[in-house]
Write a structure and sequence with these properties.
- The chain has three domains: 157 residues, FAD/NAD(P)-binding domain; 128 residues, 3-Layer(bba) Sandwich (FAD/NAD(P)-binding domain), CATH 3.50.50.60; 117 residues, Enolase-like, domain 1.
- 26% of the residues lie in helices and 30% in strands.
- The chain is α/β, with parallel strands linked by helices.
- A hairpin with a 2-residue loop joins strand 16 and strand 17.
Amino acid sequence: MTKEVVIIGGGIGGIYVLRNLLAKKDAVKEGLHLTLIKREKSGWVSVCGLPFALRGWYGIDKTEINKPQFFLDQGVDFRTGSEVTKINVEENSVVTLRTGEVLRYDYLIIATGRKPAVPAVVEKTNLEGVYTFNNEDDARKIEAAMKDAKNAFVYGHGIGGIQVASAFSARGLKTTLFGRPPSLIASRLDPDMGDMLKEWLEKAGIRFILDSEKGITAIKGDGGRVKSVVIGEEEIPADVVVISMGKKPDVSLAKEAGIEIGEESHGIVTDSAMHVKKGRRYVSNVYSVGDCVEVIDGITHRPRLNQAAFAAVVQAKVVTDNVFSDIRGQLDLYSSYEPSLGPTAADFAGLLVGSVGVTSEAASRAGLKTVSGKATKLTKARYFPGAKPLTLKLIFDAYTKKLIGAQMLGEATVAERVNELAVAIYAGITAAEMRNMERCYDPSLALLIDVTIDAAEAAMGITAVY
């Protein structure tokens, strides 16, 4: 009998489970029928590409990688503009749709993603020009509002908020960003590194208000459109307002079905195979992936969220492997999702920012003592055209001296360094080993003594003499 797989959610997690299953569909003798249900009317959209579309680098339409018809042509029951209203795990695996239709499944993947966190003062407003930034529909509204706008206001000093602020500034809008201390992207950067990012963005024309005492006290409008935002006693002109103060896991469906939700992260609890948990057991034919899922931190071993595309892609591989392992009865196909290090890279107004592992503050909260070293150096020989400075901070466990975190800012070579240092953390490389490791050299590509060496020596208390 044909195996039925139902995927709830068409974000990166759900789409990659679908893509992976399609690639192996012919290997299922019984046959494999795939259904994907998503609220949006689009197909596969690269949400990560939307901030750059707002900068004007390309049109928002370019971010739709595959239209729904692409999947329909491959035999997928690809349902857009639709929504699941109930999951019933007990009654022979039943999903009830808003239309009243009931779908039975052999395997269910919950990929419901995230929803924006919104302060009460914003929830009460119905003014035009006030938006969240969570999907392509939001991006279209923001882009339309930008055309006649002169002043922009962003609430949120994480990656999403800064990307939107960078887009506004790049398009000539006078931009103010409001957030809480201590610094920018506090979940990924220590204050000293966050302050460097803030200084760069201030030069790009963005004004920052980072204040723990003040909050948005009012959003004022004129003729039904937003006019200004009041912070404390100051009224800030704003023709467009974007709220990007964080994303909450969208777990309402799972919670109503009795699936366990993490107390700290508020994400769906899974085992390493990505099975969801209900009561005292993990459900063998129900999985969850993506922004709605709780993960285990690779350094602190505590539960947290990792709402990033790279995490969803890996989780989707694990789910695909385990669905086929179950269908075919082959244990050698089984795989697991390892604790997360959260490698991150982003472009803010031309400054590349990267991080992996823990920040000093996160390590301290987990009871880990650390030593760190920071260095700034060019990415290639000083006499070579295109040489740019890069600042690197390395964080080591104070006792083992193993690398547990890295942060960097520069105009080049950031993403590849993040990946390199993620491997170093997984391998348990120490500061001494990093210092004495041979590295490639060519004056057009790299320095003879890389910034990594200087940062490791700084953590060891060694003064560089090169």
